[in-house]
Specification:
By secondary structure, the protein is mainly alpha-helical. It has one domain. It is about 75% helix and about 0% strand. The chain contains ten helices and two strands. A two-stranded antiparallel sheet has the order 1-2. A hairpin with a 2-residue loop joins β1 and β2. The model has no long low-confidence stretch (mean pLDDT about 90).
Length: about 250
């Protein structure tokens, strides 16, 4: 696994060298979301008998984890392809499993670092309880793994930066923004509640939030099952693409 360790070190160093952009900037963005939405709605809205600011914080943390995990693996691959440096990763005898693990673990690390930063910064604005910290950690890790894998699929598929932007703007952004980050799905009409249950990101957000308050829109075991199956499907798809060499070796 020496190839895995070396590639993981390279991927972590890649985002850490520009941490002001890759870690600090997303934390600031999440803080602005909290300041704006809580200022407008905190006095008028309660969800699950929880202040709106407190309800919003776990959603923002998980959204930051997911978006940054996707951004890390996708941006790394597309940059390597456009600059032509991907050949230096493909030439050494690194198996496609090591390749997958290095990119996904690095994406998870960036996502978790940003999520922790968001939690520390926003935690000053509302009192949070940690009813089930194990659920928090499990959903954060698996969610980061799913988005890291999706980022690899996007990076492999895209040939240009605008194609990657399209993948992010028309798939990842709607899935995260319409997943219950800013609201409980019980506040939606029945039709849209049913539609929300087809969004795997909804289960990531809902299960993650359960770890803080002990209440959720769906049973956490159900959310964990959906998220685990989603990770398995996305990971196997990514491994199949890497094994075939699609748009990387051929």
């Amino acid at each position: 696994m020496s190839g895995f360790r070396t590639l993981l070190y390279k991927e972590v160093l890649r985002f850490w060298k520009v941490s002001f952009q890759t870690v600090a900037a997303p934390v600031l963005t999440a803080l602005l979301y909290l300041l704006i939405f809580s200022h407008v709605l905190d006095a008028q809205v309660q969800v699950h008998n929880v202040r709106y600011a407190a309800f919003l914080i776990p959603g923002l943390v998980m959204m930051s984890v997911l978006q940054n995990a996707f951004a890390n693996s996708s941006s790394s691959l597309i940059q390597s392809k456009v600059m032509g440096s991907v050949i230096f990763i493909l030439l050494p005898p690194i198996s496609y499993v090591e390749f997958f693990l290095a990119y996904v673990v690095a994406a998870m690390l960036r996502g978790l670092m940003v999520g922790l930063g968001v939690l520390v910064v926003t935690g000053w604005f509302a009192s949070l309880s940690f009813v089930a910290p194990g659920w928090i950690l499990v959903f954060a890790i698996i969610g980061g793994g799913i988005m890291g894998s999706l980022g690899m699929i996007a990076g492999i598929w895209a040939d240009k930066f605008d194609q990657l932007s399209g993948f992010q703007n028309f798939l990842i952004m709607p899935l995260t923004m319409l997943s219950g980050v800013f609201y409980s799905i019980h506040s939606l009409p029945v039709f849209w509640q049913r539609v929300s249950h087809f969004n795997p990101v909804f289960y990531m957000i809902d299960g993650f939030r359960f770890g803080f308050f002990g209440v959720s829109d769906v049973a956490p075991a159900t959310s964990l099952a959906v998220v685990a199956v989603s990770f398995l499907v996305v990971a196997l798809t990514t491994l199949a693409l890497l094994r075939s060499g699609y748009k990387l070796r051929y």
